[in-house]
Every structure is written in C-alpha cells, then in structure tokens.
Write a structure and sequence with these properties.
TIM Barrel; eight-stranded parallel sheet; 9 helices; about 15% strand; binds pyridoxal-5'-phosphate
C-alpha cells in the first residue's frame, strides 16, 4: 500500500537527518570538518512534493539526471529558491535547457558540450558551475573523459567566461568492497591535485570533488569528497 503524503514527507525528514549524521560521522572519522562535505539530494524519479518536503527539512541542493523529467519539477519548486545540479549525461541537443535551468553541471565530458553550455548560458553575471566527469574504468555505458584528457578539457573550460570550473566528478563501477571503492576515489583526488598544480599559473583553483553515492559515500569522504550525491538513502528506492 502506498504511503500517504504526510507519512512520506515525515520519512524523508528522518532519512535526511540520518544521512546528515552519517556524513558527519564519516567526516570526523577521517579527520575532516563535516561542513566541508556538501550533501546533494538526488531526486530523480521522485516528485516535486517530495523535493519540497526535503527542502522543508533544510535541504538546498538537488540533483537530477534526466532533463525532461527535471524541468517541470524545477518549475514547480521555483518559489523555494533551490540549487539545481545536472548529473546526467549531457546530450548535445539538451545543452540549452541545461544552461538555462541549472546552477551546476557535474558531467561535462567533451569540448563541444562545454562550448555549447557556455554559449547558451543566459546570464553572464551568473556562470554555470561545472565539474568534469572522469571515466576511471572502461565502462561502455558511462560518460566521462579519460584521465589523460582532463587537462586539455580543463584548459578549454577555464577560457569560457560563462562557465566556472569547480572540479572533478566520477561514478566508479559499483563494488561492495570499501577498499575497491576507495581506490577509484583516491585516483580522482590525485587527478584533482595534479590539475590544481597544472592550473595554478592561470590562477585557477578547483575546490570540488563530486564523488560518493548511497552505497559508497563513506569511502568517498575518506578520500576527500566535497560533494556526495545521495538519492536512495534519502528518498528510498526508485521504481
Ligand atoms: C542516481 C545517481 C546518484 C544517486 O544514487 P543513489 O545510489 O540513489 O544514492 C548519484 N549520482 C549520479 C550521477 C546518479 O545518476
């Protein structure tokens, strides 16, 4: 039997506070300041009502993967003043709507989409915040650039005035083993360090590592994640 709306929003408040607690505990365990790990609530396949319930419980950042699904929810939640993150694959014919309606894009993985997002971003005073998605293991179905292509893509993005390059993002192959999870996250953190070194002469400093989901956020925090993207642990299973 489906839960009634009041019950569901009560559950979300509870799940959010549990997730926040776990994030803090993980941060402290790895000698990090809890406030340096930002929680992105991944609301794909969940309704605007549930997003509003999470907002009511103090959540500000929301992630969506599918543009067509996200747009009406963003519209419905306009009065709440939330921050929207695009975390799905960026298709060439969708860049305009992404550039117009989102605050962040975590999944830039080619020159062409960076260029288009820049050209289509409406307000020059409000640049789109972007991360480069990096592919750390050969997986056909996932987006992301090869580690070797990160520097040239970053060098392009920092020349684009309507984009602000914030950091790197990854979705490693799923694994139950914390040591496997940590190995990928450590790779992304190392890449970011190198990149910061390489970009320092341009005055650019990347401050974001977008890594960690419901099943692996502890490992991600252990390796320096500054933004975890959590869906299931907040909103429950997607259908
Ligand atoms: C769906 C999704 C998430 C959230 O996954 P959960 O396992 O539900 O926490 C995080 N990041 C990306 C890119 C996603 O597509």
């Amino acid at each position: 039997m489906p839960l009634n709306p009041e019950h569901r929003s009560g559950l979300i408040t509870q799940c959010l506070s549990t997730v926040r607690e776990r994030l803090s505990e993980a941060a402290i365990r790895y000698a990090r300041e809890p406030a340096t790990v930002r929680l992105l609530a991944v609301s794909k396949q969940h309704s605007a009502e549930l997003i509003a319930a999470a907002a009511q419980a103090g959540q500000r950042d929301f992630g969506e993967s599918y543009l067509q699904e996200a747009l009406p929810k963003i519209q419905a939640c306009k009065p709440l003043g939330l921050t929207w993150h695009f975390i799905g694959q960026v298709q060439g014919n969708k860049t305009r709507a992404i550039a117009e309606h989102f605050d962040w894009v975590h999944t830039v993985d080619r020159d062409r989409s960076a260029q288009r997002l820049n050209d289509q971003r409406p307000d020059p005073a409000n640049p789109l915040q972007v991360c480069i998605q990096v592919k750390l293991a050969p997986e056909e179905t996932k987006g992301g650039v090869d580690p070797a292509q990160v520097l040239p893509l970053a060098q392009l993005i920092i020349t684009l005035p309507r984009l602000t390059l914030r950091g790197l993002m990854c979705i490693p192959p799923p694994s139950q083993l914390p040591e496997h999870q940590r190995r990928y996250f450590a790779q992304l953190a190392t890449l970011q360090k190198q990149l910061n070194h390489q970009l320092a002469p341009s005055g650019v400093h990347l401050d974001t590592l977008s890594m960690g989901m419901s099943g692996d956020y502890e490992a991600a925090i252990a390796e320096g994640s500054t933004m975890v993207r959590i869906g299931t642990a907040i909103f429950g299973e997607r259908r």
